[in-house]
# Entry
Amino acid sequence: MADTSISIRNISPYSFLSAGIVLVFLVPINIAMDTKMLLLERFFPGGGWVEIAGLTVYAILLSRAFLKTDSISKVRSRYWRLFSFVFFLQLLLGISVSSIFLMTGKLHLPVPALIIGGSIYRNEVSIMLFIFSGTLVLTGPGWCSHLCYFGAMDDFFSKRKKGSVTDRPISYVWKYLAIALTVAAAFLLRAFGTGSGIPLWIAAGFGVFGIAVSVFLSRNRGQMVHCTAYCPIGGVTTLLGKLYPFRFRIDRTTCTDCGRCGKSCRYGALSKAHITSGTAGWNCTLCGDCISVCNEGAIAMKPLFSKRDVWPVYAALIIGLHAVFLGLARI
Ligand code: SF4
Ligand code: SF4
Ligand code: SF4
# Structure
């Protein structure tokens, strides 16, 4: 019978890495910050430590399950949706029950485009921009497949597609156009629209239209159209993510060109041309879904100039950060 018990001895170094990330971020925050950042600390003294302990155990168990699963896509969607659910539930409770569920008590629209648009409009480095930039450094474009509170919705709708999923690449033009329009709109509104309700309405309209893009386009196409073509942050993560040293590569000596990975990639980053070239396309967000669909074991995450598979390290890092976000991320 398989040993399913948990003891220190059967926790892998990767799970320890996930747990370490939780502790490295949350312990100093709980000790040093005047504002109580962890929710349980706001309810009773010492609650922050209980929450840190719970998140550490959660990170260990999830990291273990994520690295053993034969469906990365399924497990990833579950924890991503859980985070999104917790994030929006706290927002709802913050609005309807008590400001204790909000980060600062000050409300912002939960539209990711505002991470850059809002910072330019207000001419300041917002907390969100700071967190987002840190995530870019640590995980490359991984924000857009594991950590964003909004993208889980696009993942959900893209996976509602019935029947065969296309491996057609999604044009890069749209995402760069989205960045240019967001930056231009933020500068123009700063120059002419300050003090009016117009920026708020534009941002809210952008968010609502984005939901429609997910509901209709992503669901019909089976690809994350909202995240790869509409949201400007998707363009920023994949563009700056190219500075990140890890890439998804295909071993052409074992690949049989079956095309299964292309149909599993919701970001349109594994067309036939990409598979033939042996490297995932620019839309790749390092989600990892393609790893578990390849029966030949031909896909792996590799550092530049190395053949070592670093997926377990990256996955452990992502799970650790996901647990940190569960504890801290709220409006
Ligand atoms: S593209 Fe935008 S909505 Fe999608 S995951 Fe990235 S930041 Fe979130
Ligand atoms: S699933 Fe594996 S074998 Fe099939 S095309 Fe992709 S990399 Fe090649
Ligand atoms: S190429 Fe693989 S890792 Fe990259 S986005 Fe597509 S499925 Fe995810």
Observations:
- The beta strands are 246-250, 299-303.
- Residues 248, 264-265, 267, 269-270, 280, 284-290 surround iron/sulfur cluster (ligand 3) (CB under 6 Å).
- The CA atoms of residues 213 and 226 lie 6 Å apart.
- The chain is about 60% helix and 5% strand.
